[in-house]
Amino acid sequence: MKNLKIIFSLTIITFFLASCGKGYRLKLNSPKNIKSHQKLSVSVIETSQKPIDSIRYYLDGNKLNMNTDIDISKNKLGKHAISATVFFGDQQKKLTNTIVFLAEKSPEIYTYQVINEYPHDEKAFTQGLEYQDGYLYESTGHNGESSLRKVELTTGKVLQKIDLDKKYFGEGMTIFKDKIFMLTWQHKIGFVFNLSTFEKESEFNYTQSKEGWGLTHNAEKLIKSDGTEKIWFLNGETGAEESFIEAYTIDRPVDKLNELEFINGKIYANVWQRNSIVIINPQTGALEGIADLKGLQDKSGQTGDDKVLNGIAYDAANDRLFVTGKNWNKLFEIKFQKKQ
To answer: What global pTM score does this model have?
Structure first.
């Protein structure tokens, strides 16, 4: 009988505590979005004014020091998880919100000046473009028409070419450590070619990103776009995706990022179906510049949504920027000019 009373008493206590936990109405207060130069402030309230013992706050799983407002200026832009673990009695509850970090300021706006015009193969559905040692290297798309090429700059003559298997839709390419890395669109596979012979040496897979679009590199990593606002950083040896940034302005993500080029510490990107190039901070994802290149498509003898600007190459030794587009009959050397 005594044991039964103890069990009954424990049951009542457990029910009371559970009821207390269920009775708590907790709310995590945080902004839906915030600019990167602003201080982040978060709090938890119990709407019926029941007591809370303590709260631990986390940003993307990392514990925060809540003695002061949170400095987010060095964080990447885009979506983040802000969470709080609330302790009351012998219970706890986790609350989570999504918050978007936005760029601090609007991007610089650029126009352009055409310095030179060169012939370009109008049958080339350009996906990737790179300049090295006096030559252009280009990848093209469409199933059954995808290729890798070495091109003479001044004449547009194709000096060397291999075709991909007809099942592959070729995408962006870059030259990294004397190897050519090239993406495919939806097969989630990339190829590594010998720079001199174009012989395929190996393959790599990308499993996290949505698709294969553009490709470039910095001194250590391959840098890849996938058609969204995300830009991925890949291991330079294995091609494995290791991290990403998200491209954002002061109020929105910048998606449809396509062909890429890494120039003077910044990522230059074509935006699919827009005749423009955006300049992105590789640490934060902040959109720092937009170059409006309208007019070049008309000069190239093409119209239509799929015959747009796509192809950025940079000659670092001579500070020359080259651009072309899908099925354009010209390649342009241009200079950006800040819009007044």
So the answer is: 0.88
